[in-house]
Amino acid sequence: xxxxxxxxxIMAGGIGSRFWxxxxxxxxxxFIDALGCxxxxxxxxxxxxxxxxxxxxxxxxxLADYAEYVKEQLPDFPQEHVLLEPCRRSTAPCIAYACWxxxxxxxxxxxxxxPCDHIVMDVPEFQRVVNSALSFTEKSDAIxxxxxxxxxxxxxxxxxxxxxxxxxxxxxxxxxxxxFKEKPNKATAERYxxxxxxxxxxxxxxxxxxxxxxxxxxYQPALGSxxxxxxxxxxTDKEQEMVNELFPLCENxxxxxxxxENVDEIYVLPASFGWSDLGTWGSLYENLxxxxxxxxxxxxxxxxYESRNCVVHTTQERKVVVQGLDGYIVAEKDDTLLVCxxxxxxxxxxxxxx
Amino acid sequence: xxxxxxxxxIMAGGIGSRFWxxxxxxxxxxFIDALGCxxxxxxxxxxxxxxxxxxxxxxxxxLADYAEYVKEQLPDFPQEHVLLEPCRRSTAPCIAYACWxxxxxxxxxxxxxxPCDHIVMDVPEFQRVVNSALSFTEKSDAIxxxxxxxxxxxxxxxxxxxxxxxxxxxxxxxxxxxxFKEKPNKATAERYxxxxxxxxxxxxxxxxxxxxxxxxxxYQPALGSxxxxxxxxxxTDKEQEMVNELFPLCENxxxxxxxxENVDEIYVLPASFGWSDLGTWGSLYENLxxxxxxxxxxxxxxxxYESRNCVVHTTQERKVVVQGLDGYIVAEKDDTLLVCxxxxxxxxxxxxxx
Lengths: 354, 354
What we know:
Two copies of one chain form a homodimer. Chain A has helices spanning 41-49, 67-73, 91-105, 123-138, 186-195, 209-219, 221-230, 239-246, 255-260, 281-287, 348-352; strands at 6-11, 58-63, 82-85, 110-115, 119-120, 143-149, 159-163, 175-181, 198-208, 266-271, 275-276, 296-298, 301-305, 311-314, 319-323, 328-333, 336-341. Chain A is globular, with a radius of gyration of 21 Å. In chain A, the strands form four sheets. A five-stranded mixed barrel of chain A has the order 6-9-7-8-10. Chain A contains eleven helices and 17 strands. Helices cover 29% and strands 26% of the residues of chain A. By secondary structure, the first copy, chain A, is of the alpha/beta class. At the A-B interface, strand 15, strand 16 and strand 17 of A face strand 15, strand 16 and strand 17 of B.
């Protein structure tokens, strides 16, 4: 495999509304040091992919509003590889933009598309898995998804149902996908967990650039023709102007609906690398180290008294004292404070509304 | 009664440690808009006394560190009436400083001494009561304390035990004091409440300036002689210098120990004007209007969900969402956040320690 053909497209336009108040449309979670480790999620994402391909093959697609955050947090990142969406249009237009642009320079490019607000605990295993998928798509027009081995009946993720009866001859850790499943209810999630051939959909896709461009042309012809119109302007002074004009005309559609539900030849690589989509406070709680009372505290000066099973998160320099809470989220950021039972976290969107 | 002889001494040097984090030694509660009414407690205190005497007869004694707050919050207040203590020495030296100084200019002065971190709901009644006490001490060398009619078995206040068998002939709402009582335990407080002749000690004293200066000379001769040494420098350029030199030599002693426990002829005026010493979060909670769920919210944008009997206090412009709490204090200020059961509020000093 020639790593010079490997490209990574980092989708960094999400708004992270379930992580309020840490995350907000003004400063979404990918630009925050959510883990309290000194690196923001987008920095951690770029770090992970530096071993997969050279930095100049990494692309970040984000909302124009967030361009400054990218510049600030990734000062060494080639700014011409930061693609700016003038408005939100979900994942299919985002991927199309990057892939049309990559293909214009390198039709043999082999591409990983990834969100950047996820966490990965076992980075070497992650890199091994991604390289395995890339070496597969280098020689095939397949779409490979990464399927996370389920460890609990999670209702917050979509699932990938795989046919485990026969691995691919060319890569024995890759299997055909039967179907993509929406977020299940609890009973269904429990059934999925027992079945062993259901994997969490991590939203990480691997394919060569011809495969994805062709699939978009076939299944989303309107979208495809918009990017054909933009293509002559890519890498010119007029690129942003044309994107600003035509990108808003794209349908607001996710890659799952645009492609995955239409294409037959989709594969999954089941893997375990300590993944979490970090979608909610609960998932942050699950993924961070707990003190003996089961509390997760992220912040410089947090004191807990008679408290258990809480997640306390402060991104500013603050002193926090929490007494007598069990199972709560206590989160503050800038001018906003949330105190809420963890089991009510699905209502955070409601709470955060003005 | 000649209101020109009426003077008010406002003691504004307290640190309000039980009100952390709203109040801290850096910015104690008297300088905070604790009630969320747009006026700080010291502003409210000055407002209350403007009807008692002219502004130029009001004196504020505070720690030098707090001089700027007084200036900022009371821009029209005569700055030469702000007396600056170079260090904390409790209430007796504070009162001595003001009274020696007042007496130097007006030996017939009639003085109210008051804390400024208390709240008073019925201001006209408060003013009536203070005037009644002043008219009494104008013609007598008595010390009059204001006794608050107890409405609950409060363990957070000291009590005044009165002899209600006979009112003073010259003022029938004033009675002799039998004894001052320390903060009682619950059982004792309940007994006091049943007894009817026990009143909360509001820490507001009324006397003429000769009475207090004489009492200090007799019962606290060391203190008296220090102020005799300072006296020639009062109202001169050297006043602050001398105070800075000699005030630190004063014994750290409260007026209760210095005088009240020694003097026989002490009187109490039992009154009801919606007083609270606002010493704790619980007392703030008791004194403010509650929503139908029993929550007290002070702050511009506080939303409560499934929460009852809480006090939520923010002094900055903040958005706060509280869900699923019953009987908690949620207080934030600057870089500090406290979430704590209200019944644990006596531990706030412990929580606030570095």
